[in-house]
Amino acid sequence: MFLTFINVFYGQHRDLVKSLKEKNAFFGRYREQAIVTWHGSEGHFRTLLKKSIDIEHTQNPVTISIGSKVHFHDLEISYKNNNGILESKIYYDPAIDTLPNVSDTPMENQSKQLYAVLYRAVRCASDIEKFHHELCHIQVSFLRWGFTPEFIDSNIERFYQEFDVQEKFFSLFLNDDDEYNHLRQRIIQDVDEQMKLKQQREGQKKYTLFLPSPRFIDQEMLDIFKQGFQDLWKKYFGNESQTKYIQIKWIQRTSIPPAKSDFLVNKRPPLRCHPIHHL
Questions:
Q1: Could you tell me the pTM of the whole model?
Q2: The dihedral sign for the CA sequence 191, 180, 172, 142
Q3: Residue 102 within a domain
Q4: Is 256 in contact with 232 (CB distance < 8 Å)?
Q5: What is the tally of structural domains in the chain?
Q6: Nearest partner of 228 among 250, 252, 251, judged by Cα
Q7: Sequence-distant (≥ 6) Cβ neighbours of residue 151 within 8 angstroms
Q8: In terms of residue numbers, what domain contains 247?
Q9: pLDDT of 89-98, one tens digit each?
Q10: What three-state secondary structure class fits 79?
Q11: Using DSSP, how many helices (H) and how many strands (E) does the chain show?
């Protein structure tokens, strides 16, 4: 029984997933990277992998990492006491002296910076012990970067309160597993809600028609033009199944005239002159 991390490309893993499902194994994928649990010999797994992905004839490289624990992005996943239960915690690259989700450049809102690493810590730490270890690491790191203890403690308290965790008076550690599991469930719910909102926004973009706003007319004439266009659109396309849900959004054109260097002379146009740049 072991874990394996595979770097594959889209379309290569379909036969592998089918075989893993038949064997009741776990397969998780993020883009071109996948993590698999396997309850058998390493030789058997490599044979299955070779047969499913056809490593010898693929044009894209396939890298494999096998062991009792694997690193998946900034997450370390391992077996708990070798009993088949997975556990996770944040993985730190020894070559990088920083926290995940924290930029070397100071953010304008420092509270958001601390909030981001706390949020990530709860998502990654599978139990309260790992979370407390991560919490200590976060506190020490922010102290090293010049944040005051009062700032750190108050923002951790505010983070707890946002997710309905009981107020802490003497210690910022959580009381027990139940309290930590409650915090994790609230974070998971929040992630799900954010994903739904993201999908809704992406869906709305599909029904938005971006049009350049006319130039060189006053505001009154511009309003009349826009209203006239809306009336014509509604008259001719308002009842069509493919267009009746489309919303029109007007985009202001840039008022910066092109410089001499912007004219094409055996070169690409600068980004600021590209129409997509102004959307």
A1: 0.64
A2: negative
A3: no
A4: no
A5: 3
A6: 250
A7: 110, 142
A8: 207-278
A9: 988 877 776 6
A10: strand
A11: 7, 9
